[in-house]
Automatic annotation (TrEMBL):
Pfam families: Hs1pro-1_C, Hs1pro-1_N. One of its GO terms (biological process) is defense response. It comes from Trema orientale. Residues 202-461 form the Hs1pro-1 C-terminal domain. This is Ematode resistance protein-like HSPRO1 protein.
């Protein structure tokens, strides 16, 4: 039993003493796993990471992500990788529906990819909404064609908005795969579902993507081909290891899945930088919105990894042994640690805990006093009406922690299903009760925000005591 009376016992230098407003002791049973030290996550060996990046052609993808072609559009670095992930998903649809293997689960692949595409579109729409004030996005207009639009074979139309003199150029992408999927009988129903989803998701945005969606609101369209660069992106569809794996069709599936994954990881990295800058400038409501988007990206990453569950077991295990020989290094045993950027954003998300004192406007008590916890309790119970944006931000920070830990837990379950329980334990044959592999340490470690956790615990206990006291007084009065 752990006594959380802070005057009697100090649990952590970061967890403050008991608030003087609550005099009742609260006893909690803390399992051994929760008392573990904070896990230090690190990337796999340099050779393993380099092989992973070479397999996915990440250096070439990074050049596309990092190209700055619209200096006035500050949302470019966040939105560009997300749009590229969406375009790669269109290629994924084409790949899955072209699978020649008679035992491939095409029906479920179709459903999963439509669901994944819709999730990405909703997240992209949220990114556009929140980045509307970040500078002018490249919008198709008559000036982009010097005031003249081709009559024959043009992908652009000029619309006049009813009731006014405003004209809008509606342009459909010429290089994206989605309009082509809509014309292919095999994928026609998939493309239609995506297009209508796109129309609905973009309702609150100042412009639409221009991928062939109905655009019933007559909005201007993004210069999609100039931003997402579909032609250059699809030039990277060939895996450099195709000659080593032969005709194993799962190679293209794994290759495309991880390209989508890495694109969203890049977008999350940019969002984390923007959120940190907004916290520093005390734009807490905007930072809370960024943190909510980061939480949604973690959930999207888990959805992307779940695609491994549809891969054929024999083909996938053959591919795994062709691409990644067994390693005795614990960090190399888990494929996710070969992504340097994934490890980086995990650390950045954990480091958000150091922003809590700045958000609250208090300094950490070097003696481990109750300063932070009491500030949080005051914010939650007394000052919420005047500082609601701080509450939103603190809630979003804890939501990121929850989504992050769920991602790594879900990743381990996927490993168990597609590779077996031994692989999920990091190739350890014997597991001691107190031992824990590097992956499990991430989702079993204690909370990143002990002060927020303690404040809610004591507030909840205080309300319970007040309710019990009120019931006792009413009973005595009777």
């Amino acid at each position: 039993m752990v006594d959380l009376d802070w005057k009697a016992k100090m649990v952590s230098s970061e967890m403050p003493n008991k608030s003087p407003k609550l005099s009742n002791k609260l006893h909690l049973t803390v399992p051994a796993s929760a008392r573990a030290v904070q896990a230090e996550i690190s990337a796999a060996s340099s050779s393993a990471c380099s092989a992973y990046e070479s397999y996915l052609r990440l250096p070439e993808l990074r050049k596309l992500w990092g190209s700055k072609e619209f200096p006035e559009w500050r949302n470019e670095s966040v939105l560009k990788p997300a749009l590229m992930a969406l375009e790669i998903t269109f290629r994924f649809v084409s790949t899955a529906l072209s699978d020649p293997r008679p035992y491939a689960n095409r029906r479920e692949w179709k459903r999963r990819l439509v669901s994944l595409t819709k999730s990405q579109i909703e997240l992209i729409a949220a990114l556009i909404e929140d980045g509307e004030e970040e500078g002018a996005a490249p919008i198709a207009d008559s000036s982009s064609a010097h005031g003249v639009l081709a009559r024959d074979g043009s992908s652009a139309e000029v619309w006049r908005i009813a009731g006014g003199d405003t004209t809008v150029v509606s342009r459909t992408s010429e290089a994206s795969l989605l309009p082509r999927l809509a014309m292919w009988q095999t994928s026609e129903d998939v493309a239609e579902a995506i297009l209508y989803s796109l129309e609905c998701a973009m309702r609150r945005c100042p412009y639409t993507l221009g991928l062939g969606e109905p655009n019933l609101a007559g909005k201007p369209t993004l210069e999609y081909d100039a931003v997402a660069k579909p032609s250059e992106l699809h030039a990277l569809k060939k895996c450099p290891y195709d000659h080593e794996v032969g005709s194993n069709y799962e190679n293209q599936t794994v290759y495309t899945t991880h390209q989508v994954l890495e694109s969203w990881i890049q977008s999350a990295s940019e969002l984390l930088g923007r959120a940190a800058a907004r916290i520093e400038s005390r734009s807490f409501e905007a930072a809370a919105s960024d943190c909510c988007l980061i939480e949604r990206i973690w959930k999207l990453l888990a959805e992307i990894f779940d695609l491994h569950l549809l891969m054929d077991p024999d083909d996938f295990l053959r591919l795994k042994n062709q691409l990644a020989p067994k390693s005795m290094d614990d960090s190399d045993a888990f494929f996710c640690f070969r992504s340097r950027k994934l490890v980086e954003i995990t650390k950045l998300c954990k480091d958000l805990r150091h922003r809590v004192p700045y958000i609250l406007g208090v300094e950490v008590d070097p003696t481990g006093g109750p300063r932070i916890q009491e500030a949080v309790m005051r914010l939650y119970s007394e000052e919420k009406g005047g500082a609601f944006e701080k509450v939103h931000l603190l809630q979003a920070l804890q939501a990121i922690e929850s989504a992050l830990k769920r991602f790594f837990y879900a990743y381990k379950q996927v490993l168990v299903v597609v590779m077996g329980s031994l692989e999920a334990r990091g190739n350890r044959v014997v597991i001691c009760p107190d031992s824990c592999d590097a992956l499990s340490q991430i989702f079993l470690e204690p909370t990143y925000f002990p002060s927020l956790d303690a404040a809610k615990t004591f507030l909840g206990n205080g309300l319970t005591q007040e309710q019990l006291g009120g019931l006792e007084r009413r009973t005595r009065s009777k």
